[in-house]
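In the previous chapter we treated chains in isolation. Here, by contrast, the input contains two separate entities that must be folded as one system, with a combined length of 648 residues.
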Amino acid sequence: MLKPDSVAAVPVAQPVARSGAETGYARPRRWGPILENIAAHLVLLVVLAIVLFPVVWIVSMAIDPRNISRPTTLNLIPPGASLDAFKRVLTEPHANNVMFSTMLRNSLIVAVSVSVLVVIFGVSAAYAFARFRFPGRKWGLFMFIAVLMLPSVATLAPLFVLLNRISIPFMDENVRTTLLGVGIAYTSGAMPFAIWNLRGYIDTLPRDLEEAAMVDGATPHQAFVNVVLPLIMPAIAITVLFGFMAAWTEFVLAWTFLTDPSRFTLAMGLNSMVGQYSSNTPWSEFAAMAILITLPVVVLFFMLQRWIVSGLAVGAVKG
Amino acid sequence: MAQQSGTIEGFGTGHQSLWARYKLPILYIFPAALILAIVTLYPIGYQVYLSFTDFALRDLRTGQADWVGLDNYRRILRNQVPLPNFDFWRILVFNFTWTIANVFFHVVIGVAVAVLLNRQGIIGRKLFRAAFVIPWAMPPLVVATIWRNMFDRQFGAINLLLGELGLKSNIDWLGSTTPPIGFLSFLPLAFYAVLIANIWLGWPFMMVIATGALQSIPGDLYEAAHVDGATRWQQFWNITVPLLRPAMVPAIMYGTILTFNQFNVIYFISNGGPLGRTEILVTQAFKLVNPNGLYGLAAAFSIMVFFILLVITLAQNRVARGLEGWSDA
């Protein structure tokens, strides 16, 4: 019954059979991507759980009203959860009688200026290393990365002595004790990576773009500002993020250099809390403070994500 | 016009002065070079000087101390340093193990997650990316303090979690002196604890770099490879990996340097314990300064770290360049 039918059907159904064979072949392919996608999501969720575990732990600590020094159980939401710890951190004076708002202002001043300076100096130096030919180019580039190799813990003493000797005109103090001194140190610390990363990114851009602009009458500066800068936005975004973060979270240098409490940064405030908790830890407040410090960086990353992830350079090369 | 493009290449006509010839590179590099010279090169020079002196706490204000020649270096290599359980070569081996293990996991996890997140049809891509960067965004001090408390034997979240899962829950993460893996007898359990904490802390950086680099890989390449019948695995090794390399090599070098000198995680989580088995060179240098105030000795330590990292970086550069030639051939 079937046999003659199918035989008869063969010539007619040949294209169908071929596409049938194709779908037969493609069936695992059709399901494959979906299964793969589900697997990918599962892996990402597992990674998310691992990443968030300590974060969830510290959040539950921050909203724990008991302000205990040692947690004994693993509670996602502790009994009687409240935001009191956040309120205390934000409104009550910290160690050395500094207010949160003061430290926030100092941290913002330092972190924003450092990220701006790192981008300006870093981009221009990176461009020179990527595009210009001059003697000592490789050697100079290597110098920038070599300075990272000296442990920062070790450069503290010399930098302390140096900045202590430079005083600000008309003000009876030296650079060491000011946010300016700390900011310069951070800028220098963040620059090697900025230069390396930006140079690597500029290297991937075809020179044709700038050459075309210069054939059209642009000066090298104009080619740099109008052609190159818009294309390296992803790398610039990473540099901004990096500079901001380096300044925002650093405390060893700041702790050594700054003496006036009105100039303390948030990371220093947090460090002074750790100092206390060997005896009697305000754990909830430490946790709340940690969250408040981390939040701006996450927000900044979210804001810069569009540039970090966009394929501007690709579009330009293709188009 | 010819003159301008000549300038950008750095080749003058021969009649130009040095300034005219190299004006652009000088102008572009000068600001960055100036800051680095003041804030970094000077301290390095000073550091070299310090390493040949007996500079101590009392000399901090004046900046003067007595010359002792190579004495500091000799003392370090002969383990004549006022630190408990000090053994230079053991610490050096540990420091290398620590760095290699960390960078390996940072890169593998970072690239893997970046590639996963770059797939089509990932729901909540932006939220994942923002959440994954949280470890990197947290102040190192916070991270270290959280993890030290998480590894607490009695109250730590890790043991509490293991207990809830019905597993062994009184593990002495930071204090146990018996090595968990027999043939790696120089690695106490605390090594794996700080390793876990630092992997958690370090992989997002590699993910961000890889994500940035993935965006510049044209999708056509994958389409072409797909048409030619390449599997995803082949596409990954033949398209993704070679094109990620220009961005990842500097990141790996940078990560190696940072991990080799990862002070915060070691100092605040294990504090080098138990019995100094998780000390790295930088934590030892810091302990010489604080509380001992031996700046001269610590400077000699730093100079040694500097040269070790210099050798590693030059070697990595060599290897990276070698690989480049190999894959292009």
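The first helix of chain B runs from residue 2 to 9. The CA atoms of residues 286 and 298 of chain B lie 7 Å apart. Compare these points with the single-chain example from earlier in the chapter.
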